[in-house]
C-alpha cells in the first residue's frame, strides 16, 4: 500500500510541475514587445524577405504558422505568416514585416506592445 501511495504522489507531483514548465505548445499565445524590419535578405526559412508581405519572425513557432497579432495600444489586428527566426532582443516576441507593422499602426513608433494568437 505504501508503495502505491508513493507512486501516486510522484505522478501527481510530475503532472503538477510539468504544467508550470514552459513548453512549445504554450508559445501559441503570448504578449510582449514587437518591432518591424524591412530588409531584403534571406529569411531563416530560405525565402527572400519582402517588406510588402504580411510576415513575421518568431523564435520557435513553425514556419508557415498563421498568427493573429493585436497592437495592445490601439486594438488593431493583422494576420501574419511566420517565415523567420527572431527577435533576439529581450522582451520582444515578434519582428513584423513593414506591411504588417503598418496594418497595426506601429511603423512610426518602431515598436509596440502586442499580443499574438496562433490561428493555424
Word description of this protein:
- The chain is globular and about 35 Å long.
- The longest helix is centred in the N-terminal third of the chain and has 19 residues, at 2-20.
- The chain has a six-stranded mixed beta barrel with strand order 1-5-2-4-3-6.
- It is an alpha/beta fold and 120 residues long.
- It has a single domain (29-118), classed as Barwin-like endoglucanases (Beta Barrel).
- The protein contains two helices and six strands.
- The N and C termini lie far apart (47 Å).
Helix and strand pattern:
HEEEEEHE
Report the uncertain regions: 9-25
Q: What's the architecture, going by CATH?
A: Beta Barrel
What composes the largest sheet?
Answer: 6 strands, mixed, barrel
Query: How much is the average pLDDT?
Result: 85
**Number of separate structural domains:** 1
What is the quaternary state of this protein? Answer: single chain
- CATH class category: Mainly Beta
How many angstroms does the end-to-end distance come to? 47 Å
CATH topology: Barwin-like endoglucanases
Major beta sheet, strand line-up: 1-5-2-4-3-6
Whole-number radius of gyration? 19 Å
Helix content: 10-25%
